[in-house]
Amino acid sequence: MTTTETPGTLRRIFDYSARADPYPLYAELRETPVALQEDGSYVISTYREITDILHDPHLSSDVRNLSRPMPAPEEGVTTAFIKKDPPEHDRLRRMAMRHFGPPHSPGVVAGMESDLTATVGSLIDDFAGRERIDVVDDFACPFPVTVTCHLLGVPREEEPRFHGWVNDIMNSVDYDPETDPREKLDKGVRARKDLRRNLGGLVEQRHGRPGDDLLARLANDDGPDGRMTDEEIVATAKLLLIAGHETVVNLIANGMLTLLRHPQVLERLRHEPDLVAPLVEELLRYEPSVHIIPWRTAYSDITVADTVIPKGSQIMLMLASGSRDPKRFHDPDRFDPDRRDNQHLGFGSGIHSCFGGALARRETQIALTELVRRLVRPRLVADPPPYRPSPVLRGPIHLDVEQGDG
Protein backbone atom coordinates (compact mmCIF):
# COMPACT_ATOMS: atom_id res chain seq x y z
CA MET A 1 0.00 0.00 0.00
CA THR A 2 1.30 3.45 -0.91
CA THR A 3 -1.76 5.34 0.22
CA THR A 4 -3.35 5.35 3.64
CA GLU A 5 -5.00 7.74 6.03
CA THR A 6 -2.25 8.73 8.49
CA PRO A 7 -3.50 11.87 10.21
CA GLY A 8 -1.83 10.87 13.48
CA THR A 9 1.74 11.26 12.20
CA LEU A 10 1.11 14.55 10.44
CA ARG A 11 -0.71 15.96 13.46
CA ARG A 12 2.27 15.09 15.62
CA ILE A 13 4.62 16.81 13.15
CA PHE A 14 2.54 19.98 13.35
CA ASP A 15 2.34 19.79 17.14
CA TYR A 16 4.88 22.11 18.75
CA SER A 17 6.30 19.31 20.89
CA ALA A 18 7.92 17.87 17.74
CA ARG A 19 9.59 21.08 16.67
CA ALA A 20 12.99 20.38 18.22
CA ASP A 21 13.28 17.00 16.46
CA PRO A 22 10.70 16.13 13.80
CA TYR A 23 12.97 13.65 12.03
CA PRO A 24 11.77 10.42 13.72
CA LEU A 25 8.24 11.39 12.67
CA TYR A 26 9.42 11.98 9.10
CA ALA A 27 10.80 8.43 9.13
CA GLU A 28 7.35 7.18 10.13
CA LEU A 29 5.76 9.22 7.38
CA ARG A 30 8.13 7.82 4.71
CA GLU A 31 6.69 4.37 5.34
CA THR A 32 3.73 5.64 3.31
CA PRO A 33 5.18 7.74 0.46
CA VAL A 34 1.78 9.17 -0.50
CA ALA A 35 -0.49 9.59 2.52
CA LEU A 36 -4.15 10.56 2.18
CA GLN A 37 -5.35 12.80 5.00
CA GLU A 38 -8.76 13.10 6.59
CA ASP A 39 -9.39 16.43 4.86
CA GLY A 40 -8.74 14.97 1.39
CA SER A 41 -5.22 16.36 1.02
CA TYR A 42 -2.18 14.25 0.19
CA VAL A 43 1.20 14.28 1.96
CA ILE A 44 4.30 13.21 0.01
CA SER A 45 7.38 12.41 2.07
CA THR A 46 9.94 10.44 0.01
CA TYR A 47 12.72 11.89 -2.13
CA ARG A 48 11.85 10.34 -5.47
CA GLU A 49 8.16 11.14 -5.25
CA ILE A 50 8.82 14.74 -4.13
CA THR A 51 11.25 15.41 -6.97
CA ASP A 52 8.85 13.83 -9.47
CA ILE A 53 6.10 16.18 -8.28
CA LEU A 54 8.33 19.27 -8.32
CA HIS A 55 9.22 18.57 -11.95
CA ASP A 56 5.69 17.62 -13.07
CA PRO A 57 4.30 20.21 -15.53
CA HIS A 58 0.76 19.29 -14.50
CA LEU A 59 1.32 20.70 -11.02
CA SER A 60 0.11 24.19 -10.07
CA SER A 61 1.35 26.77 -7.53
CA ASP A 62 -1.69 28.99 -8.02
CA VAL A 63 -4.16 28.80 -5.11
CA ARG A 64 -7.04 29.40 -7.50
CA ASN A 65 -6.56 25.88 -8.88
CA LEU A 66 -7.31 24.20 -5.56
CA SER A 67 -10.72 22.58 -5.24
CA ARG A 68 -11.07 24.59 -2.04
CA PRO A 69 -9.12 27.78 -2.82
CA MET A 70 -7.19 29.36 0.01
CA PRO A 71 -7.83 33.01 0.85
CA ALA A 72 -5.18 35.39 -0.44
CA PRO A 73 -3.13 37.02 2.37
CA GLU A 74 -3.65 40.44 0.73
CA GLU A 75 -6.80 40.81 -1.34
CA GLY A 76 -6.32 42.59 -4.65
CA VAL A 77 -2.52 42.68 -4.34
CA THR A 78 -0.26 41.36 -7.10
CA THR A 79 1.35 38.10 -5.95
CA ALA A 80 4.99 37.12 -6.45
CA PHE A 81 5.85 34.83 -9.33
CA ILE A 82 6.46 31.85 -7.01
CA LYS A 83 2.66 31.71 -6.63
CA LYS A 84 2.07 31.72 -10.38
CA ASP A 85 2.27 29.04 -13.06
CA PRO A 86 3.87 29.03 -16.53
CA PRO A 87 3.94 30.90 -18.76
CA GLU A 88 3.44 33.90 -16.46
CA HIS A 89 5.78 32.49 -13.80
CA ASP A 90 8.51 31.85 -16.36
CA ARG A 91 8.22 35.34 -17.87
CA LEU A 92 8.46 37.14 -14.54
CA ARG A 93 11.25 34.93 -13.23
CA ARG A 94 13.30 35.52 -16.39
CA MET A 95 12.82 39.26 -16.03
CA ALA A 96 13.94 39.19 -12.41
CA MET A 97 16.93 36.94 -13.05
CA ARG A 98 18.25 39.24 -15.79
CA HIS A 99 19.37 41.53 -12.96
CA PHE A 100 19.89 39.10 -10.13
CA GLY A 101 22.03 36.30 -11.46
CA PRO A 102 23.15 34.09 -14.36
CA PRO A 103 23.18 34.11 -17.28
CA HIS A 104 22.69 37.87 -17.79
CA SER A 105 24.08 39.14 -14.48
CA PRO A 106 26.46 36.42 -13.24
CA GLY A 107 28.50 38.75 -11.05
CA VAL A 108 25.76 40.20 -8.84
CA VAL A 109 26.33 37.98 -5.79
CA ALA A 110 30.13 38.04 -6.19
CA GLY A 111 29.95 41.82 -6.41
CA MET A 112 28.22 41.92 -3.03
CA GLU A 113 31.03 40.02 -1.30
CA SER A 114 32.63 43.02 0.39
CA ASP A 115 29.24 44.35 1.51
CA LEU A 116 28.30 40.97 2.99
CA THR A 117 31.62 40.67 4.82
CA ALA A 118 31.43 44.22 6.15
CA THR A 119 27.88 43.75 7.42
CA VAL A 120 28.78 40.50 9.17
CA GLY A 121 31.90 42.09 10.65
CA SER A 122 29.96 45.06 11.98
CA LEU A 123 27.39 42.82 13.69
CA ILE A 124 30.07 40.66 15.30
CA ASP A 125 31.97 43.79 16.41
CA ASP A 126 28.95 44.56 18.59
CA PHE A 127 29.56 41.33 20.51
CA ALA A 128 32.79 42.68 21.98
CA GLY A 129 32.86 42.36 25.74
CA ARG A 130 29.65 40.32 25.86
CA GLU A 131 29.69 36.88 27.43
CA ARG A 132 26.29 35.94 26.01
CA ILE A 133 24.72 36.64 22.61
CA ASP A 134 21.53 35.57 20.89
CA VAL A 135 22.60 34.41 17.44
CA VAL A 136 19.04 34.98 16.16
CA ASP A 137 18.18 38.44 17.51
CA ASP A 138 21.69 39.89 17.57
CA PHE A 139 22.95 38.53 14.27
CA ALA A 140 20.82 36.32 12.02
CA CYS A 141 17.73 38.58 11.96
CA PRO A 142 19.34 41.93 11.10
CA PHE A 143 21.84 40.54 8.60
CA PRO A 144 19.65 39.49 5.60
CA VAL A 145 17.35 42.54 5.85
CA THR A 146 20.36 44.85 5.71
CA VAL A 147 21.79 42.94 2.74
CA THR A 148 18.50 42.95 0.79
CA CYS A 149 17.92 46.65 1.49
CA HIS A 150 21.35 47.40 0.01
CA LEU A 151 20.59 45.18 -3.01
CA LEU A 152 17.25 46.89 -3.65
CA GLY A 153 18.58 50.40 -3.12
CA VAL A 154 16.68 51.30 0.05
CA PRO A 155 18.18 54.51 1.50
CA ARG A 156 20.30 53.86 4.60
CA GLU A 157 18.14 56.12 6.75
CA GLU A 158 15.07 54.04 5.80
CA GLU A 159 16.58 50.69 6.76
CA PRO A 160 15.40 50.68 10.41
CA ARG A 161 11.79 50.99 9.23
CA PHE A 162 12.26 48.08 6.83
CA HIS A 163 13.75 45.99 9.66
CA GLY A 164 10.66 46.72 11.77
CA TRP A 165 8.22 45.84 9.00
CA VAL A 166 9.94 42.55 8.19
CA ASN A 167 10.01 41.57 11.87
CA ASP A 168 6.31 42.39 12.30
CA ILE A 169 5.40 40.40 9.18
CA MET A 170 7.41 37.36 10.26
CA ASN A 171 5.93 37.48 13.77
CA SER A 172 2.44 37.51 12.28
CA VAL A 173 3.18 34.42 10.19
CA ASP A 174 3.33 32.44 13.44
CA TYR A 175 0.09 33.96 14.77
CA ASP A 176 -1.96 31.56 16.87
CA PRO A 177 -5.46 32.92 17.63
CA GLU A 178 -5.72 30.70 20.72
CA THR A 179 -2.60 32.03 22.44
CA ASP A 180 -1.47 35.27 20.75
CA PRO A 181 -2.91 38.77 21.16
CA ARG A 182 -4.78 40.09 18.12
CA GLU A 183 -2.26 42.95 17.97
CA LYS A 184 0.38 40.52 16.71
CA LEU A 185 -1.70 39.81 13.61
CA ASP A 186 -2.78 43.43 13.16
CA LYS A 187 0.84 44.64 13.25
CA GLY A 188 1.67 42.18 10.48
CA VAL A 189 -1.22 43.44 8.34
CA ARG A 190 -0.12 47.05 8.81
CA ALA A 191 3.50 46.15 8.10
CA ARG A 192 2.57 44.48 4.79
CA LYS A 193 0.70 47.59 3.69
CA ASP A 194 3.48 49.95 4.81
CA LEU A 195 6.17 47.85 3.15
CA ARG A 196 4.23 47.64 -0.11
CA ARG A 197 3.52 51.38 -0.12
CA ASN A 198 7.12 52.36 0.56
CA LEU A 199 8.54 49.96 -2.01
CA GLY A 200 6.05 51.37 -4.53
CA GLY A 201 7.31 54.88 -3.79
CA LEU A 202 10.93 53.80 -4.31
CA VAL A 203 10.03 52.19 -7.65
CA GLU A 204 8.28 55.39 -8.81
CA GLN A 205 11.41 57.37 -7.99
CA ARG A 206 13.51 55.06 -10.19
CA HIS A 207 11.59 55.58 -13.43
CA GLY A 208 13.79 57.36 -15.94
CA ARG A 209 16.72 57.24 -13.52
CA PRO A 210 18.86 54.18 -14.33
CA GLY A 211 21.07 52.99 -11.50
CA ASP A 212 22.94 50.01 -10.11
CA ASP A 213 20.38 48.92 -7.53
CA LEU A 214 17.86 46.19 -8.34
CA LEU A 215 14.79 48.45 -8.18
CA ALA A 216 16.34 50.86 -10.68
CA ARG A 217 17.34 48.06 -13.03
CA LEU A 218 13.87 46.49 -12.96
CA ALA A 219 12.08 49.83 -13.32
CA ASN A 220 14.06 50.81 -16.44
CA ASP A 221 14.60 47.51 -18.21
CA ASP A 222 13.03 46.75 -21.58
CA GLY A 223 14.29 43.23 -22.18
CA PRO A 224 12.99 40.47 -24.46
CA ASP A 225 9.99 39.92 -22.17
CA GLY A 226 9.14 43.60 -21.83
CA ARG A 227 9.11 45.49 -18.55
CA MET A 228 7.62 44.55 -15.21
CA THR A 229 4.74 46.65 -13.95
CA ASP A 230 5.38 48.59 -10.75
CA GLU A 231 3.16 46.14 -8.89
CA GLU A 232 5.21 43.20 -10.18
CA ILE A 233 8.46 44.90 -9.13
CA VAL A 234 7.07 45.49 -5.63
CA ALA A 235 5.97 41.83 -5.40
CA THR A 236 9.45 40.68 -6.45
CA ALA A 237 11.13 42.99 -3.92
CA LYS A 238 8.83 41.73 -1.15
CA LEU A 239 9.70 38.16 -2.10
CA LEU A 240 13.40 38.90 -1.66
CA LEU A 241 12.85 40.70 1.63
CA ILE A 242 10.44 38.29 3.30
CA ALA A 243 11.26 34.86 1.87
CA GLY A 244 14.97 35.68 1.73
CA HIS A 245 14.93 36.88 5.30
CA GLU A 246 13.31 33.78 6.72
CA THR A 247 15.48 31.40 4.70
CA VAL A 248 18.74 33.00 5.81
CA VAL A 249 17.77 33.57 9.45
CA ASN A 250 16.84 29.92 9.92
CA LEU A 251 19.81 28.67 7.93
CA ILE A 252 22.32 30.65 10.01
CA ALA A 253 20.67 29.71 13.31
CA ASN A 254 20.30 26.03 12.36
CA GLY A 255 23.87 26.11 11.07
CA MET A 256 25.38 27.52 14.24
CA LEU A 257 23.34 25.12 16.37
CA THR A 258 24.54 22.18 14.25
CA LEU A 259 28.18 23.27 14.48
CA LEU A 260 28.00 23.67 18.24
CA ARG A 261 26.54 20.15 18.43
CA HIS A 262 29.43 18.92 16.24
CA PRO A 263 32.50 20.62 17.76
CA GLN A 264 34.95 18.66 15.59
CA VAL A 265 33.32 20.07 12.46
CA LEU A 266 33.34 23.55 14.01
CA GLU A 267 37.09 23.26 14.57
CA ARG A 268 37.61 22.02 11.02
CA LEU A 269 35.78 25.05 9.66
CA ARG A 270 37.90 27.36 11.82
CA HIS A 271 41.07 25.95 10.27
CA GLU A 272 39.69 25.02 6.83
CA PRO A 273 37.52 27.94 5.65
CA ASP A 274 37.10 26.32 2.21
CA LEU A 275 35.03 23.65 3.94
CA VAL A 276 32.16 26.12 4.24
CA ALA A 277 30.71 25.57 0.75
CA PRO A 278 30.05 21.81 1.09
CA LEU A 279 29.18 22.36 4.75
CA VAL A 280 26.32 24.72 3.85
CA GLU A 281 25.07 22.26 1.23
CA GLU A 282 24.99 19.54 3.88
CA LEU A 283 23.26 21.93 6.24
CA LEU A 284 20.57 22.53 3.59
CA ARG A 285 20.00 18.78 3.57
CA TYR A 286 20.42 18.02 7.27
CA GLU A 287 18.80 21.05 8.99
CA PRO A 288 17.09 23.12 6.27
CA SER A 289 15.17 26.36 6.70
CA VAL A 290 12.10 25.21 4.79
CA HIS A 291 10.72 21.86 5.89
CA ILE A 292 7.40 21.76 4.07
CA ILE A 293 5.81 23.16 0.93
CA PRO A 294 2.29 23.34 2.43
CA TRP A 295 0.46 22.99 -0.83
CA ARG A 296 0.55 22.33 -4.52
CA THR A 297 -2.29 21.08 -6.67
CA ALA A 298 -2.75 19.43 -10.06
CA TYR A 299 -4.55 20.59 -13.19
CA SER A 300 -5.81 17.04 -13.71
CA ASP A 301 -5.66 13.64 -12.00
CA ILE A 302 -2.03 12.57 -11.54
CA THR A 303 -0.43 9.32 -10.42
CA VAL A 304 2.31 9.35 -7.78
CA ALA A 305 3.75 6.06 -6.45
CA ASP A 306 0.81 4.15 -7.96
CA THR A 307 -1.62 6.48 -6.21
CA VAL A 308 -4.09 8.59 -8.19
CA ILE A 309 -4.34 12.10 -6.75
CA PRO A 310 -7.53 13.80 -7.98
CA LYS A 311 -7.49 17.13 -9.77
CA GLY A 312 -7.58 20.11 -7.41
CA SER A 313 -6.43 18.18 -4.33
CA GLN A 314 -4.07 19.88 -1.92
CA ILE A 315 -0.61 18.27 -2.07
CA MET A 316 1.82 18.82 0.80
CA LEU A 317 5.51 18.19 0.08
CA MET A 318 7.70 17.23 3.05
CA LEU A 319 11.04 18.53 1.74
CA ALA A 320 13.04 17.90 4.91
CA SER A 321 11.78 14.33 5.04
CA GLY A 322 12.84 13.75 1.44
CA SER A 323 16.33 15.06 2.19
CA ARG A 324 16.70 12.40 4.89
CA ASP A 325 15.36 9.56 2.78
CA PRO A 326 17.72 6.55 3.23
CA LYS A 327 16.80 5.34 -0.25
CA ARG A 328 18.53 8.45 -1.63
CA PHE A 329 21.16 9.41 0.98
CA HIS A 330 23.58 7.09 2.77
CA ASP A 331 23.37 7.37 6.57
CA PRO A 332 20.99 10.34 6.20
CA ASP A 333 20.77 11.21 9.90
CA ARG A 334 24.51 11.92 10.10
CA PHE A 335 25.81 15.44 9.52
CA ASP A 336 28.63 14.98 6.99
CA PRO A 337 30.09 18.07 5.26
CA ASP A 338 32.17 15.73 3.06
CA ARG A 339 29.04 14.12 1.62
CA ARG A 340 29.16 13.58 -2.15
CA ASP A 341 26.31 13.84 -4.65
CA ASN A 342 24.35 16.01 -2.24
CA GLN A 343 21.29 16.85 -4.33
CA HIS A 344 19.22 17.94 -1.34
CA LEU A 345 15.78 19.57 -1.40
CA GLY A 346 16.78 22.49 0.83
CA PHE A 347 15.93 25.01 -1.88
CA GLY A 348 13.26 22.90 -3.54
CA SER A 349 13.72 21.80 -7.14
CA GLY A 350 12.29 22.41 -10.60
CA ILE A 351 10.99 25.72 -11.92
CA HIS A 352 10.21 27.02 -8.43
CA SER A 353 13.64 26.35 -6.92
CA CYS A 354 14.67 29.15 -4.58
CA PHE A 355 14.95 32.41 -6.53
CA GLY A 356 17.54 33.86 -4.13
CA GLY A 357 19.40 30.62 -3.46
CA ALA A 358 22.79 31.87 -4.64
CA LEU A 359 22.66 34.89 -2.34
CA ALA A 360 21.32 32.87 0.61
CA ARG A 361 24.15 30.39 0.20
CA ARG A 362 26.82 33.09 0.20
CA GLU A 363 25.25 34.98 3.11
CA THR A 364 25.24 31.80 5.18
CA GLN A 365 28.76 30.81 4.15
CA ILE A 366 30.22 34.17 5.20
CA ALA A 367 28.13 34.34 8.38
CA LEU A 368 29.13 30.91 9.67
CA THR A 369 32.78 31.32 8.70
CA GLU A 370 33.08 34.61 10.57
CA LEU A 371 31.09 33.48 13.60
CA VAL A 372 33.31 30.41 13.99
CA ARG A 373 36.47 32.43 13.43
CA ARG A 374 35.67 35.27 15.82
CA LEU A 375 33.62 33.81 18.66
CA VAL A 376 35.83 32.65 21.52
CA ARG A 377 34.98 29.16 22.80
CA PRO A 378 31.25 29.44 21.97
CA ARG A 379 28.89 27.23 24.01
CA LEU A 380 25.14 26.58 23.82
CA VAL A 381 23.14 27.90 26.75
CA ALA A 382 20.18 25.59 26.06
CA ASP A 383 19.93 22.49 23.91
CA PRO A 384 17.46 22.18 22.39
CA PRO A 385 16.84 25.91 22.10
CA PRO A 386 13.30 27.31 21.92
CA TYR A 387 11.88 27.02 18.40
CA ARG A 388 9.52 29.27 16.55
CA PRO A 389 6.01 27.80 16.23
CA SER A 390 6.06 27.11 12.49
CA PRO A 391 6.70 23.53 11.31
CA VAL A 392 7.02 24.88 7.76
CA LEU A 393 9.78 27.46 8.27
CA ARG A 394 11.63 25.70 11.07
CA GLY A 395 14.35 27.30 13.17
CA PRO A 396 15.19 28.50 16.67
CA ILE A 397 13.37 31.62 17.79
CA HIS A 398 16.39 32.30 20.02
CA LEU A 399 19.85 30.74 20.07
CA ASP A 400 21.71 31.89 23.18
CA VAL A 401 25.44 31.29 23.08
CA GLU A 402 28.03 32.02 25.75
CA GLN A 403 31.58 32.86 24.73
CA GLY A 404 34.88 33.45 26.49
CA ASP A 405 36.19 31.71 29.57
CA GLY A 406 32.78 31.73 31.29
Automatic annotation (TrEMBL):
SUPFAM superfamilies referenced in this protein's UniProt entry, alphabetically: Cytochrome P450
Keywords: Heme, Iron, Metal-binding, Monooxygenase, Oxidoreductase
CDD domains: CYP164-like
The keyword Metal-binding belongs to this UniProt entry's keyword annotation: yes
One family name in Pfam for this protein: p450
Coiled-coil parts of chain: none
Biased composition (Basic and acidic residues): 397-406
InterPro entries for this protein: Cyt_P450 (IPR001128), Cyt_P450_B (IPR002397), Cyt_P450_CS (IPR017972), Cyt_P450_sf (IPR036396)
Taxonomy, superkingdom: Bacteria
Keyword Iron on entry: yes
Disordered as annotated region, ranges: 386-406
Record-given protein name: Cytochrome P450
Organism: Streptomyces canarius
